[in-house]
Amino acid sequence: MTNETQMANAIRALAMDAVQAANSGHPGAPMGLADVATVLFNRFMKIDPTADKWADRDRFVMSAGHGSMLVYAINHLLGYDDMDMNQIRNFRQMGFRTAGHPEYGHAKGIETTTGPLGQGISTAVGMALAERMQNARFGDDLVDHYTYVIAGDGCLMEGISHEAIDFAGNMGLGRLIVMWDDNSITIDGKTDLSTSTDQPKRFEAAGWHVQSVDGHDKDAIAAAIEAARKVSDKPSMIACKTIIGYGAPNKQGTSATHGAPLGDDEIALTREALGWPHAPFEIPPKVYDDWHAIAARGKAARLDWDKRLSASGKADEFNATLAGPDKAALDAAINAYKHRLSQDAPKVATRKASQMALEVINATLPNTVGGSADLTGSNLTKTEGMEPVSKGNYGGSYIYYGVREHGMAAAMNGLSLHGGFLPYGGTFLAFADYCRGAIRLSALMGLPVPYVMTHDSIGLGEDGPTHQPVETVASLRAMPNTNVFRPADVVETAEAWQIAIESESTPSVLALSRQGLPCLRTSHTDTNMVAKGAYVLRDTAGERDVTLIATGSEVEIAMKAADQLAAEGIRAAVVSAPCFELFAEQDADYRAEVLGTAPRVGVEAAIEQSWGKLLGDNSAFVGMTGFGASAPADELYEHFGITADAVAKAAKNLL
Amino acid sequence: MTNETQMANAIRALAMDAVQAANSGHPGAPMGLADVATVLFNRFMKIDPTADKWADRDRFVMSAGHGSMLVYAINHLLGYDDMDMNQIRNFRQMGFRTAGHPEYGHAKGIETTTGPLGQGISTAVGMALAERMQNARFGDDLVDHYTYVIAGDGCLMEGISHEAIDFAGNMGLGRLIVMWDDNSITIDGKTDLSTSTDQPKRFEAAGWHVQSVDGHDKDAIAAAIEAARKVSDKPSMIACKTIIGYGAPNKQGTSATHGAPLGDDEIALTREALGWPHAPFEIPPKVYDDWHAIAARGKAARLDWDKRLSASGKADEFNATLAGPDKAALDAAINAYKHRLSQDAPKVATRKASQMALEVINATLPNTVGGSADLTGSNLTKTEGMEPVSKGNYGGSYIYYGVREHGMAAAMNGLSLHGGFLPYGGTFLAFADYCRGAIRLSALMGLPVPYVMTHDSIGLGEDGPTHQPVETVASLRAMPNTNVFRPADVVETAEAWQIAIESESTPSVLALSRQGLPCLRTSHTDTNMVAKGAYVLRDTAGERDVTLIATGSEVEIAMKAADQLAAEGIRAAVVSAPCFELFAEQDADYRAEVLGTAPRVGVEAAIEQSWGKLLGDNSAFVGMTGFGASAPADELYEHFGITADAVAKAAKNLL
């Protein structure tokens, strides 16, 4: 018979001791949640620590990421082979897997990076949606898992939680079970300092199944989880009334346990209070045995599942969806498409070009999942034959995310982490600001999510400065491990999409125009030129007098300026620079060849900030210096002086 | 007797005709909301178009900012002198006040910029809070106004609305009345595509008073507003069931009316259906008369109020709070404080230095309002004697915003727009991403809100990469009209605060260290050196061999590197560059003098992107190239090579 009290106390002891050793960290949440987590894992979780990527495992997301020691303690006790006691002893230290917040990819059994509050629950919504969508495609025998989340007060105060909860309710994600750590404490003190929201009522309003339990009553917790699992048409929230820092006689129930070590004295008293006489980082064999039994049960389930997969006749298809895109097929399809484009040379907005590329991609790959934050007709993210995903109808491949940019981005992270799908989603580029928190996690986790961001400059016209990105491209280029594409025409857009889809560990932002742009790449190349980041689009006959470097809709302007300059006998090369990040990765020779030694003029309908590395001391920039305005697009370009005349003039000033 | 039906039809006609003339815009919302808005203005609003900044006016916020023509039509009909028919005819055109979305400062009677959904309702929460706080200070005779909001489905789907609604409920803002335009339509189609939330129940869960009415039944609307005004301890939400595009016989009730002109044929049919035979942009005198009566009533109320203010004995004090900070007093206090600092030379984290500066500022100025998004003890935003603001107790000056960065930023915009207060608020710098949408509106509207953003680099240590800003400073420097300060020591922090508080139309971000930093400015200057943006902190005896430019916590490292170089006979000047934006505003001679002609090394524990203008071709940069890690701060600086040794080496490589 397992002793769940001691199983839970093992979590508490490891948490308080590791935080004390690090002299930094958050003991309160793991100690308060130890009973909830023990019951969840001991009686329900289906995981196999020897096969941490098993597709049909239950997902566990610690949304309150500062409680990372809960995750590390559990994963150590379960016997994950990369989480030995040395990792626990070196919590928050350089070179160890036990980072201050759980980092995806640092250790097995961490399903997503959490820490920025609200991201975990919102990412889990994407995982739970992926489960239903995968189930719709492969059936109950192969896809039958739950997504469990522990969320704190902070997670539920953050705005992103609203977007996620409403979306999950509307989608009827019955396999999503959120346990709210209702401990009435935040950093600043008691929660009633800043909130008086009736959370159960709030979740009910969003269409959730809701229960409330004593978070230290193990049978009550188990009964609630059991009941939640039985509700198949609604996500479930279980309000678990807990005592933060449970077991610490003088500090439990106060914000003093939230984010600081308990101190040696209080830890000694806690050991006594809990009946846990063991030395720090010492776990009795019986406790290990009880936790290992969970792992053994999971392994047996996984072996059964392996047999079912083999017998299903769908193994190849199932595994293919997990393996990422078929690059050979995609390459052939994109190249055939580029051939046609170079001949037809259509003048289209790059948002339309994006849709055209997606028609090719979605026809080639079976598991792309499109969507938009209520701008489907503007972002042009939906292609022929895509059926919406909705409650009870998970066989579709297009998601109406609603006016929820942040929730969409987090859900896409969840879809990507879950595996089996290639999500992409759209909004206006200006509203990248609304989902930046989740884009940053795409980048930090290395998830290859493409963000379709249209209306990418003052070129959107009359909607005015709130909707006109001027600093947004720079702000996204600033983000590590993020490829920002600003394609100039229909061909570059196809190439950017190919890179975005084939990416293995880098998210992509496609900044796309509202306005029509001529096809500039009228000679077909099999080579993906966008993959070079920047390249000479128009070369000069003799030595260059000046190099004009532009992106997106401004490449057309640079080409016209080059014509004007040519008429005056000035040899201007034009470099299209659709992706600064990929250009920075090219070798020095190539970069030097593209940029040349002549003076340079940069052209982008945005601020200059990100251009430092492309321009040098002898250079000029034609772009924006402040916010935009509300007027027709052509007038705005004139008004802000982003014209071929201005580029030509700037070039001549450098000669 | 007023004819409210025709008053409302005037709004509808102006909206559909202006959108048609612009061939761009959103007729659906103004047409659907015309009855609600007419009743609100005709029976309740207290405004004087001849005194648009009257302190005790009711505030009206059109949160669904795409329905801007509702605002312009009303303000035209009321007789605002800057909103003649020529403005309406030139909706969305260059040089006119009638921008695509309502832009604060472009025309009278626009209380805040809206368009990015959810911002209006969240900013209004700040306005309503300011009203109660001002009332607590000056009494019912002088402060007795309401804040009315019209919010759409999109506003209520956005995460920020959750933060604002919960906060308003907890604060018990009885003077806040939100009318929800419940038209069941979003851009993508019917709202049930993406949401099934029971909004009334959701608002009730957050502690609001809730009613539901037919949004075309004028007496029912009036009764609901009347009832809402009578509830003094809870904010009110009135769900107004409306028909989008009301009056357009073939298009009303569909997303076709949302964001596109109705077309000439449908407009003709709408005229017929509404009984509005007048030509485009023609308003019958009786309708003007009815609207002008609202203005006259408001003017009379304002004249009465003027008398009460004069008689109150508080006029000077009241007006002083509206006039901005007392710069002379502040300057004297800050200089006395700087004198002490230069002598004492305390080594403190700049977050602590910020608190020390705030002690001086809050003791000098009566109307600063501090706060933090649940990080009071980390951001150090609370000073001696600050009492919390809470429901029914609005006399305090410190706000526990909860874990709601976006809601906090929007509320600060509202506090600033309302007048009478100087709000500032804190969070971790990494979570600037969570409130960027509202920071952008601070910048676009020119609101001098200071953002206190601590834990500004890998120097925060063990919390790891989710909490370590590496791209955040660059991403904020990218934003137009935003001063980003990264002070190096306790003196620079005081100077940065003085600029932030005295700013009239630019928000400030103070990026502050977690870790202690030595005092580098040990010789007192009355001159505010931070106001120059960058300055020579350590000069060389002879000609410079190299210039080291650093910000914030890295100035100390640059100083050590200069010592090392000096020991090797290399003359290195050190430039402290706490504010790139202010440096860019200096004249060319000063900038050239500071930067010098020697090779340059930039040092910042962040990515290089924003350094383009400070470094030249012959330069190097010592900083971050990707995300951080979880470990003690000192080890991280070593690990990422941001050390005096590395700076000295980089300098020597350039010689």
TrEMBL record, chains A, B:
<feature type="binding site">
    <location>
        <position position="455"/>
    </location>
    <ligand>
        <name>substrate</name>
    </ligand>
</feature>
<comment type="similarity">
    <text>Belongs to the transketolase family.</text>
</comment>
<feature type="binding site">
    <location>
        <position position="66"/>
    </location>
    <ligand>
        <name>thiamine diphosphate</name>
    </ligand>
</feature>
<dbReference type="GO" id="GO:0046872">
    <property type="term" value="F:metal ion binding"/>
</dbReference>
<keyword id="KW-0106">Calcium</keyword>
<comment type="pathway">
    <text>Carbohydrate biosynthesis; Calvin cycle.</text>
</comment>
<feature type="binding site">
    <location>
        <position position="183"/>
    </location>
    <ligand>
        <name>Mg(2+)</name>
    </ligand>
</feature>
<keyword id="KW-0786">Thiamine pyrophosphate</keyword>
<dbReference type="GO" id="GO:0004802">
    <property type="term" value="F:transketolase activity"/>
</dbReference>
<feature type="binding site">
    <location>
        <position position="153"/>
    </location>
    <ligand>
        <name>Mg(2+)</name>
    </ligand>
</feature>
<feature type="binding site">
    <location>
        <position position="258"/>
    </location>
    <ligand>
        <name>thiamine diphosphate</name>
    </ligand>
</feature>
<keyword id="KW-0808">Transferase</keyword>
<dbReference type="InterPro" id="IPR005478">
    <property type="entry name" value="Transketolase_bac-like"/>
</dbReference>
<comment type="subunit">
    <text>Homodimer.</text>
</comment>
<dbReference type="InterPro" id="IPR033247">
    <property type="entry name" value="Transketolase_fam"/>
</dbReference>
<feature type="binding site">
    <location>
        <position position="26"/>
    </location>
    <ligand>
        <name>substrate</name>
    </ligand>
</feature>
<dbReference type="GO" id="GO:0009052">
    <property type="term" value="P:pentose-phosphate shunt, non-oxidative branch"/>
</dbReference>
<feature type="binding site">
    <location>
        <position position="378"/>
    </location>
    <ligand>
        <name>substrate</name>
    </ligand>
</feature>
<dbReference type="GO" id="GO:0005829">
    <property type="term" value="C:cytosol"/>
</dbReference>
<feature type="binding site">
    <location>
        <position position="463"/>
    </location>
    <ligand>
        <name>substrate</name>
    </ligand>
</feature>
<comment type="pathway">
    <text>Carbohydrate degradation; pentose phosphate pathway.</text>
</comment>
<dbReference type="InterPro" id="IPR029061">
    <property type="entry name" value="THDP-binding"/>
</dbReference>
<feature type="binding site">
    <location>
        <position position="183"/>
    </location>
    <ligand>
        <name>thiamine diphosphate</name>
    </ligand>
</feature>
<keyword id="KW-0479">Metal-binding</keyword>
<keyword id="KW-0460">Magnesium</keyword>
<dbReference type="Pfam" id="PF22613">
    <property type="entry name" value="Transketolase_C_1"/>
</dbReference>
<feature type="binding site">
    <location>
        <begin position="115"/>
        <end position="117"/>
    </location>
    <ligand>
        <name>thiamine diphosphate</name>
    </ligand>
</feature>
<feature type="binding site">
    <location>
        <position position="514"/>
    </location>
    <ligand>
        <name>substrate</name>
    </ligand>
</feature>
<comment type="function">
    <text>Catalyzes the transfer of a two-carbon ketol group from a ketose donor to an aldose acceptor, via a covalent intermediate with the cofactor thiamine pyrophosphate.</text>
</comment>
<feature type="binding site">
    <location>
        <position position="185"/>
    </location>
    <ligand>
        <name>Mg(2+)</name>
    </ligand>
</feature>
<feature type="binding site">
    <location>
        <position position="258"/>
    </location>
    <ligand>
        <name>substrate</name>
    </ligand>
</feature>
<dbReference type="InterPro" id="IPR009014">
    <property type="entry name" value="Transketo_C/PFOR_II"/>
</dbReference>
<dbReference type="InterPro" id="IPR005475">
    <property type="entry name" value="Transketolase-like_Pyr-bd"/>
</dbReference>
<dbReference type="InterPro" id="IPR005474">
    <property type="entry name" value="Transketolase_N"/>
</dbReference>
<feature type="domain" description="Transketolase-like pyrimidine-binding">
    <location>
        <begin position="348"/>
        <end position="519"/>
    </location>
</feature>
<feature type="binding site">
    <location>
        <position position="431"/>
    </location>
    <ligand>
        <name>thiamine diphosphate</name>
    </ligand>
</feature>
<feature type="site" description="Important for catalytic activity">
    <location>
        <position position="26"/>
    </location>
</feature>
<dbReference type="Pfam" id="PF00456">
    <property type="entry name" value="Transketolase_N"/>
</dbReference>
<dbReference type="InterPro" id="IPR049557">
    <property type="entry name" value="Transketolase_CS"/>
</dbReference>
<dbReference type="Pfam" id="PF02779">
    <property type="entry name" value="Transket_pyr"/>
</dbReference>
<feature type="site" description="Important for catalytic activity">
    <location>
        <position position="258"/>
    </location>
</feature>
<protein>
    <recommendedName>
        <fullName>Transketolase</fullName>
        <ecNumber>2.2.1.1</ecNumber>
    </recommendedName>
</protein>
